[in-house]
Design goal:
With about 230 residues, the chain is of the alpha/beta class. It has 7 helices and 7 strands.
């Protein structure tokens, strides 16, 4: 609703400014961006019904991957509000999985949670792996996976920097695994291609753990995104 209201205010702004300045150029600018705004508005309109029904969306990809690991966790706790962590063993490594607590529609506080978890383990964490959905460019395939470094998180605010700060404090490398999708696919019902890519992303996470850590290490895996419809 807030996003739709913002689009309305942007259009109103251009119309009023064009009238005040008697500028047809501003109207041309509005005409050029209206098709994109219509597409965005339709996506947000569809998303409302999806969230009301509690159906997983494309952005639930990160929590979905994390939930696969949670199935084997023998210890679970809440390191921060609306966020849950679980501990499990994998090939001699101790894995700490973090995700928003589902199946309610929330992104939780992953930054605060990761910071608290790492402090709880006295900074003895060998690696942080983040998994999130990412916007694709036109022409790219939905569900394609990319790997990089740094925190995979769209949040420009406190959550992302909380992870970066604790990583710098204890000199912990960060890996990013992303699954590509359009904006509409990110906020509406999860497509088959995105669901199928979750297991592939999980295999990539396991590969990173095996190749870049050793037995006895502690690894934090973070499933970033809205966990609507995805439990743990």
């Amino acid at each position: 609703v807030n996003s739709l209201n913002l689009i309305y205010k942007v259009i109103r702004h251009y119309l009023i400014m064009a009238k005040k300045l008697n500028s047809v150029i501003l109207l041309y600018q509005l005409q050029f961006i209206v098709p994109q705004l219509v597409k965005i508005s339709e996506a947000y309109s569809k998303a409302v019904n999806t969230f009301v029904r509690g159906i997983p969306v494309g952005d639930s990809l990160g929590p979905l991957v994390a939930s696969y690991l949670f199935m084997k966790a023998d210890k679970k706790w809440n390191p921060s509000r609306d966020t849950i962590a679980g501990e499990l063993d994998f090939e001699g490594r101790k894995i700490i999985v973090v995700k928003a607590e589902g199946p309610m529609a929330t992104v939780g506080r992953p930054g605060e949670a990761v910071s608290n978890v790492i402090e709880e383990y006295k900074g003895k964490v060998s690696r942080i792996i983040t998994i999130d959905a990412a916007l694709k460019l036109e022409g790219e395939k939905t569900g394609s996976i990319a790997e990089g470094t740094g925190v995979a998180m769209g949040d420009p605010g406190p959550e992302k920097i909380s992870i970066e700060r604790v990583a710098v404090k204890y000199n912990i490398p960060i890996d990013a695994v992303i699954v590509k999708m359009s904006m509409e696919e990110a906020i509406t019902e999860m497509r088959k291609e995105i669901y199928q890519s979750a297991s592939k992303a999980l295999e990539l996470v396991k590969k990173i753990i095996l190749e870049r850590t050793k037995a006895g290490d502690i690894v934090v895996v973070v499933g970033v995104g809205n966990t609507v419809g995805v439990a743990q």
